[in-house]
Amino acid sequence: MGNQKLIRKINRSEIIELIKKDGPLSRVELTRRTGLSLPSISRIVNQLIKEQLVLERGKGPSSGGKKPILLEINANRGYAFGVELARKTYLLLCNLLGEIIVQKEVIPNASQGPYSIANSLLQEMKNIQKVFEIPSHQIIGVGIATPGYKFKATDLIKESPFAGWENTDIVDLFSSIFPYPVTIENIARASTLAEVQFGWGNQYDYFFYIYADWGIGGGIVHQGKLLRGATGTCGEFGHITIDQDGIPCYCGNRGCLEQYTSTASIVRELKQRGISNFDQVMESLNKGDKVVESVLKKAGQAMGKGIANLVNLLNPQAVIIGGEIGNRCGIFCEEATYTAKENIFSLLAVNTPILKSNLGRESIALGIASEIISTHLAQLI
Ligand SMILES: [Zn+2]
After folding, report:
1. Residue 118: which H helix or E strand, with range?
2. Is the pTM above the cut of 0.90?
3. Domains observed in the chain
């Protein structure tokens, strides 16, 4: 790409992002925020209006002269589906501003094979399109968040309701069945993307997000962007070793953090007490079960050690804990914070905020759908 063309593309993306994030904005405000000249801004904006990507909407307050016309993204010019394909499958449709049009939990029949589950998801999407009268050409794509990377065989998958998927390449599967472009993302990274756009993460430039759920994962966000690393595996926080002679992990190593801190490990620890899922763990905790409380505290302490390593290594502005544990388990997060602060090396880093994510159930599907939208808007030319 020639330099001129590249610069035009960057300027255009920046304007779209600004209007999307902080709109409605006037042309003058865009000049102030980007440092571009008013003629440049007007040229780009006029083109965006011609493409119906941006709309002129009413007038803003005057700063002396005539009132400026405000610009906003034409939110309903396109839509994306987001799917969390995990123990609980969640489906949503959002517009270009990330506003959710419809969201629902879809409970696949565990005995169905991969093709049949993919087809029932497609049916759900077609129904949604019909109800909201959205033609297929307005669907930018579907983003699917899954555990693991490309849904390769792991014990995590074997324990999920999706047994039988071990040899399925879900990129191939969904691309062959869905009539929309398909993007697959690891669930922890999709969750991080949601945090960047909609959670505490939008207040920080450089933070680490921990996805603490049935498995443990994470994401490093720098300058508002998720770091992917050399081969796309950046942020695999769950597989740092905390005990070299410890519990064997499905990844092939021993003593991985995930084996001491995930909801799967907590449930396993409490199995003899008749507990088989995390809902039961929380119920017992709320009834005052002291054994459950101590197991959760111990898991929180292990997480705290992991967080201290992380802060020592990265010195982020903040650490955010999400996933089912982050959302539901205050005692775990308090213990993790206390232990982390005891073990962080530098006094300068001891006050790194360790926050519980405030995002809800829909955040993973929304995170991957929003990423598709951002990529789509950046590519439009
Ligand atoms: Zn491991």
Report:
1. helix 114-131
2. no
3. 3-73 (1.10.10.10), 77-190+363-379 (3.30.420.40), 200-356 (3.30.420.40)
